[in-house]
Amino acid sequence: MVRLENLTKEYDLPPIKGRPAAVVAADRLNLTIADGEIFGFVGPNGAGKTTTLKMICGLLVPTSGSVEVNGIDVERRPEDAQQFLGYLADFFSLYDDLKVWEYLDYFAHAYKMPAAEIPARVTEVIAWVGLESKRDAFIQGLSRGMKQRLGIARAVLHDPPVLVLDEPAAGLDPKARVELKDLLKNLNRQGKTVLISSHVLSDLEEICTSVAILEKGHLLRAGKLANVMQEAAAPSRRRIRIRVAALGDQLLGWLSARDGVSDAHPAAGVASGSSAVDFLFSGNDADLAALVRDLVMSGAPVFAVEGSSESFEQIYARLSGGEVM
Fold first, then answer.
1. CA nearest to 277, candidates 191, 291, 285, 290
2. 139-175 confidence digits (pLDDT tens)
3. Which of 208, 228, 248 is the last residue of a domain?
4. pTM given for the model
5. How far, in Å, CA of 290 to CA of 298, rounded?
6. DSSP secondary-structure letter at 77?
7. Does residue 202 contact residue 208 with C-beta atoms inside 8 Å?
8. pLDDT of res. 324
9. Is 323 contained in some domain?
10. 172, 202, 228: which is the final residue of a domain?
11. Which CATH number fits the domain that encloses residue 256?
12. Where are the beta strands (DSSP E) in the chain?
């Protein structure tokens, strides 16, 4: 649905001695985003996320390379490509003195939709984003979360197959973020391909099918979220918790002496009446099974073993820190 080929964007800088003549916001990006994806763009401020999304939408002209949307070259045929796109900027303005339905009606006419179809379409989109009770409310009285929903409603009004959302969760409270995730998953089930950037990595981990990790304009990794996490996972980062009926002083020493075990310490926040040890383990599942077997054979009162892998946020922190490239 979306294809980037060697996509590059440079911004010229005023000439100052000792400083580069240009800053590279996107450096030879190559991505293919399939139909039906929820594709997340991840990176800190200045990583190139907004620049990349704007080039996809035809709002910025690339320095070199190309973008295709549904097979259409965005730079050569921007109006044709934009018919397939709905865009919500990270900072967008609303007309506070309009009612919700008036705002959508205004943009429906701006999109040159058939006049006879507009009233029904406005009603349908208002229902999609859950603003039925606010249909006749003035925009100035809406909460931040409701304004985000209205912005998305405007972006899907002309029924584009691709939604491009730049930091839509910014500034939302936890409840509004949950509602936004549910809305995006629902739109995706209706056939929309969603491109989204966000600093809230836990939110992206919950909804994205694929991700691209950007750093200073460079693409560090991209692909299916599960594959990216599996390929980037560090075995030594797997955290294991062993629960025991009683925590003896010898257990920590026994574990610390085993190959593949590091950072063994009593677990915090364990329910009263039991004890646990947390540690990092670099071995595979068979190695862990052997360790637990030997521990039980040594007489330790083990009654549970729990494991957890790195979260996407932890993996991203390592990747962006340069540990894995």
1. 291
2. 999 998 999 999 999 999 999 999 999 999 888 888 8
3. 228
4. 0.76
5. 12
6. S
7. no
8. 39
9. no
10. 228
11. 3.30.70.260
12. 2-12, 22-33, 38-42, 64-69, 72-73, 85-88, 162-166, 193-197, 210-215, 218-224, 238-244, 261-266, 275-281, 302-308
